[in-house]
Design goal:
It comes from Listeria booriae. With 291 residues, the chain is mainly α. The chain has 15 helices and no strands.
């Protein structure tokens, strides 16, 4: 479905709200008429003012403009964010195919290209069961973003998903920069779930490398935020990673109790894939850390 023009969408919204052209105070009637008939494209500041008069955000405007649905690009980004767990391989494969199809038509869309790099990295990590993988594309992305004085949200998000592949001193530097920039963006939309996921992934990454002192505060902060945001799945993920730390510190019975508690709740809320994943990872951990 081809989206409406900006002018057509403004006119449609205005008429649906029974607002007269003369009631749009941000521009004169003649200018508005030219915009609505697509004879003129509004300046950004003019467009913002019209949206204010229409009581609408730019994001919702584009949703309406696209026939009350996300654009193909926005849908890809939305679907990628929803793929929180590497367990759902069929969903990830389907998304990968959709991204590849999109890039055949829009090969210069950098952000969507980066999603493909992230998927490739995750697949390699899951297949080889190690963070020590080779990803030249990730290095190129890092070099570009690191050259910037300021990171924007997409930069933060991309690096929060790619830090795994870098050697430890650099990985720590990236983790700190991502955390600092999340602070800058803390009031930007609803980024808390993304921030929680990053804290969890960073904590699990440090756990994997035996850096439990570095991992623990990140995981506790992830658990706190997940509790406040009422995101139990993310809270359980934090509980699992914290149980690993408890175990290596000698609190083995307590750690096992926490794993059993989490798995019991996951069974009760019908999340068998997550429960099985936690049981598998815990058993692998125990095999490498005999009591």
């Amino acid at each position: 479905m081809k989206p409406k023009t900006i002018g057509e969408t403004i006119k449609s919204i205005r008429k649906n709200k029974y607002i007269k052209q003369t009631e749009i105070t941000s521009v004169n009637q003649g200018t508005l008429a030219n915009i609505e008939s697509s004879k003129r494209i509004p300046y950004f500041t003019t467009f913002e003012s019209i949206l204010f008069d229409l009581d609408m955000t730019a994001y919702e405007f584009n949703y309406v403009r696209n026939g009350f649905q996300l654009s193909e690009r926005e849908q890809l980004l939305n679907d990628f964010v929803k793929c929180k767990h590497s367990l759902y391989t069929q969903k990830i494969k389907k998304l990968q195919n959709q991204i590849e199809s999109y890039l055949e038509r829009f090969p210069n869309d950098t952000q969507i290209k980066y999603l493909l790099v992230i998927i490739d990295v995750y697949q390699k990590i899951n297949k080889e069961q190690t963070y020590n993988i080779h990803s030249p594309e990730s290095i190129k992305i890092w070099e570009r973003i690191d050259a910037q004085d300021v990171w924007y949200y997409n930069d933060i998000y991309i690096m929060s998903r790619l830090f795994y592949v870098f050697p430890m001193p650099l990985a720590q530097k990236i983790i700190k920069k991502v955390m600092d920039h999340y602070e800058i963006y803390e009031r930007y939309q609803n980024i808390t779930p993304s921030r929680i996921s990053f804290l969890l992934n960073s904590g699990k990454f440090f756990n994997h490398h035996g850096m439990y002192t570095e991992a623990q505060p990140l995981l506790k902060e992830a658990k706190r935020l997940a509790f406040e945001e009422e995101l139990p799945i993310l809270e359980f993920a934090a509980d699992y990673a914290l149980a690993v730390i408890e175990y290596v510190h000698g609190n083995c019975d307590y750690a096992q109790h926490e794993i059993d508690r989490v798995c019991t709740v996951l069974t009760m809320i019908n999340r068998p894939l997550l429960e099985n994943d936690i049981r598998r990872d815990w058993n692998l951990f125990l095999a490498g850390h005999p009591n």
